Amino acid sequence: METLTNFLFEIDSSSNGLWLFQKTLILLILCGLIIYLLFFATSKIMYKKSDLKRDQTLRLSFLWSLVLFLFIFSIYCFFWIRFNGVESFNWFNWQFYIAISPQIIVYSCIILFFIYTLKKSKSRLKPLN
Amino acid sequence: MATPMIIIGIGTSGLKIIEQTQRFYYETMKESKPKYVEYIYLETNKDNLPSVAGTDNPIKRVYISLKQLDTMVFHLKQNTDAKWLPKAVDVSNAGMGAGGIRPIGRLGLWGTNNESNNFSNVYDTIDNAYKNVGAFIHKETGDNEVAVYIVGSLTGGTGSGVFIDMGYIVRDIIKNTRNVYGLFLLPSNPRDITKAEMAYANAYGALVDLDKFNQSTKKYVERWPINKEVEFNEPPFELAYFISQDYKDGSPAIRTLDGLYKMSGLFMFLNMMGMHAKRFERLVDATSNKLIDRYATFGLSGIHFPKEQIQEYVASMLGRSLFTRWTDENNFVVNNEVQPINYAIISQGTENKWDSFLSKAFKALNTVGGQDLVRKIEYDAIQINKKEVGESDQEYIRKMFSSNTTDQLYSTVQGNLQLAVNSLIDSLYDFNIETLNRHQNLPFAKATLEGFINAIEECLNYWESMGIYKEPSQWNDFLGRQLKWITDNRYKSILEQDGVVADRMLTIFEQLKMHLMASKLREIIEYISKYDIAYASTESRKELPKLKKFDEFIRIIKQADGSIDSNNNSLSLQSRMSEIKMDVEDVTIPILRIFPAGSFNQEVENARGVYGQKTSNAQMQHSDITNENLWEFLNTNSTDLQSKLYGLVSLGYKNKVDSFQCVDDRYDLMTYIDKNSDEVNKIAKRGVSGFISVDKPLQPSMYIPRLIIANDRTKISNTVKAIQTKNNTDFTDNETNALVIPEIKNLLVFYDEKGNFEPLKDLTYIKQMKDSYTKKPRNLASNIDDATWQEQRNAYLSEDIVEDK
């Protein structure tokens, strides 16, 4: 449990590149798993009485699952900052950014993916197919 | 006691007289005719139909077909001894009617062609009419004899051609009758005879012919075209009445022929109501005393509170308001308020409605023969995902929807398309009915229908923009493009593959419906906007509304209203209003109109005001005249719609005006008579001036009928007193000169019969008539000489068929 807490919340300025890469990968996989679960749940719950086509409702459900994930990730970030204390954040030290790069990469990926999906869905939501 | 009676109108004038008679009776009794009276008219013009007061038409029409005149002549030459037949050149030159040629008019009665056996038709119609009134009267009163009046004008070819035959036909049907009368209109004393020579010449010829038959020393032997030998010792008419627009006393002539028809109608109406029986008692004595011979005329005048005319005028005003509501292109009525029509909003509304109609129609295609195609597709989707279809997914789906495979969805839906078409027709029909019922405005409903056409066009354009066309080959190409989409990315990871594939296949199913319906929608547009033939639902038989129908209905309603001219003879409310106004304001007609409110216009205004109060100033609506919905009403009455509209609207509002008591009829004529003895005296004097211009003084006699007619005896006595105060002794207060008809509340009539004159000697303008008969008009074609002109004016030849007794 302590290992998981350390893995998720600790900022280790002395960690090497391999560890950071592994941490980023694990975080992305974890995020993917959560997004999948959210998508699975929303696809079964949302738009049940909608007149929209199934393709369209599934795309909308996926967008909602991304929104929900962003919300969950923001909660995680809140606890992550609180765990470390905002005073420990050394904004003018480049090593600090290296240390929090897994969180930055995951967050950026999610935002970019959201934008990409939204754009794609918008174009596909118009016609019947 | 009222006498059973048959009134036979010959030609257009005869019809007009019967119409006026029927109008007087309807105004008085609210019925078309009494059971003991039959109206018949003979007409050579197929399009000339009666315009009657009331809903049912009591006037029996006998159409005398004038087609194949040469065939008629040929048959008559073979089967009868007729020598009066028209010349071949006249037959070949004859137009649609008798053309003013008397022998052709008579030929029409005698002839047979592919359309009818005219003589037989006329004979049978009169015979049936006699059976009707005869049977009725014998049950009621025993031996009362049926009276027959033959009415018409002698100026044209038809009336002057057949009038003598008609008298004898009646005499043959009603053996030994003493009750056959003629009422014939003569042309008035002419200022200038030019261009009217034919009318005067025909009338003269008719008078000459009648004079031959009226000789007491002659008998008439004939073989009729119904293969019957007949022999008569009597003249055709017991008494022939002649009237014209002139007055015996030289007063200004009745201004219009309609005025003369009106007086003739009043004469016939009074006879129907009891005047005939009263006159008959006296005429028997008069004839035996030689005070009246074969020819007579009469004077007729009256005092009238024209309640019916006021009611009809107001009813016509209300009817016009209804017609305006139906045809107004700028405004419509919502909640009793007039609002401008916004065509853009109508168009938007129809787009939304069209979507729901189409959706309903597409749903009708989901089930075929009890099989739910949607459930079948959903089942197939599961089979596809389970890989249990036995071939590739795309190939299986292609076969399901392709036009190249039989017994699959394509052919199933195609065979079922009529269901969707029926649904669309029903929806459009019902919406049209609902729109018309709600707003009662045809341009509004038409705009709605045009909105639907636009919506269908947009719908088809949208389908084409998606690549859906009506040709099967294009559909197969489209399907090929969709197959990859159906089978790709089925969302298996979240276990949605069955729902997704089923949904995509259902989308293709909807697109298949669009492809198949495209041509049907195009048809619907064509039928609504272009074609004349009906397009009906095969189930409900409801018909697709058409733009042309709207245009036609609007045009006919406007014609019935009078706001646009009509190319037929049907009446319009506007023209009827003008007629009523002209009639009540015509001082040349010897009927004094009295108005308690001061004037006709004031009476109309008052009545309109009362109507508004009684209806809370509600807008006119079609339920005022019919319980049917407006569209059904217009469609079911589309044959002769103008006449029916005119009749129903006029009658419907007249009944309402009457039931609301909009015209105050508590005014008693007696009040007027007591206060205006000068005016009453003047009108009484006009009553003793016959409707004819003769040189001979027509002396009154106690044996010749001279009557005051009113609804109670006191009124008659008071009227006599009133005119006697002005030293007028024309009428006396005794039972012989009084006739009480309780039903005629608003009318008092002075009647004076006159006889013992010879039209051929005593008419003041007989010389001009004779000249027009003997010499052809100067402007006539040069190939017609005087002899030919005279032959065309002679329909009865004395030297062949009238022999000494």
User: Uncertain segments of chain B of ≥5 residues (pLDDT<50)?
Assistant: none
The chain-level structural class of chain B is: alpha/beta
Q: How many H/I helices of chain A? A: 5
Rounded to an integer in angstroms, the radius of gyration calculated over CA atoms of chain A is 18 Å
Instruction: Summarize model confidence as the mean pLDDT of chain A.
Output: 84
Main sheet summary of chain B = 11 strands, mixed
List the uncertain runs of chain A.
none
What portion of residues of chain A is helical?
over 70%
What percentage of amino acids of chain A are in beta strands?
under 5%
Basic shape of chain B:
elongated
Strand-pairing-aware structural class of chain A: mainly alpha
Quote the distance from N terminus to C terminus of chain A: 47 Å
Note the main sheet of chain A.
none
Total of helices of chain B: 29
Q: Mean of the pLDDT scores of chain B? A: 87
- How do the helices and strands follow one another from N- to C-terminus of chain A? HHHHH
Distance between the termini of chain B: 38 Å
How many extended strands of chain A? 0
Describe this structure in words.
The complex is a heterodimer of chains A (129) and B (805). With 129 residues, chain A is mostly helical. Chain A is 77% helix and 0% strand. Chain B is of the alpha/beta class. Chain B contains 29 helices and 18 strands. In chain B, helix 11 (373-385) packs antiparallel against helix 17 (497-529). Classes of the chains: A mainly alpha (129), B alpha/beta (805). The interface between A and B is medium-sized, with 11 and 16 residues.
